[in-house]
Amino acid sequence: MSAVRCKYRILRPALLLFALCGAFVTARAQYDAVFSYYWETDFLQNPAAMSKNETLNIVASYSMKMAGYTRAPKTMFIGANSVLPFGMERHSVGLVVLNDHAGLYIHNRLYLNYAFKFNLPCGSLNIGVQGGFLQEQFNNSKLDAVDSNDPAFPTSKENGSAVDFGAGLYYSCPSWYLGFSSNHLASPVVYYGKGHTVSARLTLHPQFNFEGGYNINFKNPLLSLHPSFQVQTDLRGSFRADITMRGVYTIESNALFAALGYSPLTSVSVMIGGRMKDISLGYAYEIYTSGVGALNGGHDLFLSYSKVMDFGGKRRNVHKTVRYL
What we know:
Helix content: under 10%
């Protein structure tokens, strides 16, 4: 009986994570890009999710949604972050670059992240801020108009930009983590065109992101399970939840993993990948459940490099976060 209760205590946090995401049953379109490997790219939305293991992290990811369709969404993300060699290695900085093509729209982002870590008895708490620029483009030249000479449909590209801010919290301990952040805090407005030639505007509303994960170990130390979730919403109709169960087989500094993801009323994802020392590589295929078709799914590919930074020659308060397992 005691063994059963022990197993229940181990699984209970994971079940709570899945129940939280399962409570949401509506999924609607959103402005911000979503990656299947969200635990690898989470510092895009949450500046506090940086360098939790006192590491240098470089991540590149490419995503193509609805493959086979004309002007299908394509997103490229490159980001890097690292702890700094002062202040007991509690300061972290990062750079985020995003290029997102969606139909006739092109969204570009350039952000700088900063986070400060508080060491706690059972883990650490990161507080992060984010600032940068949005650059938007609408390619009118590719618009399929009935009358190409209609003056209501300009043939030139329209551009606009705005300043953007975000902030977040991230709590991590050896067996689980939770994060909360908000983007577009100032509700930036992007005007297409210049001066008196402004043709349209795009208003971004604050988006709220909630993420978490848990580490389940077995008697066999080579095997482990890592349930995780991510919820994104602007509280105005845009919503997406992702739930993932990842199995990892680890041998020394190398690992192989396979994962199954589910987004309510949106898609099911199958993921595979591995890590060799400091380099990780993964691929995901997203199968939409809304009638798009299994052969017109989404492809996600990520490549990352993670290196422990030990400026003082002796690490303090060492613990592993489940995100990198």
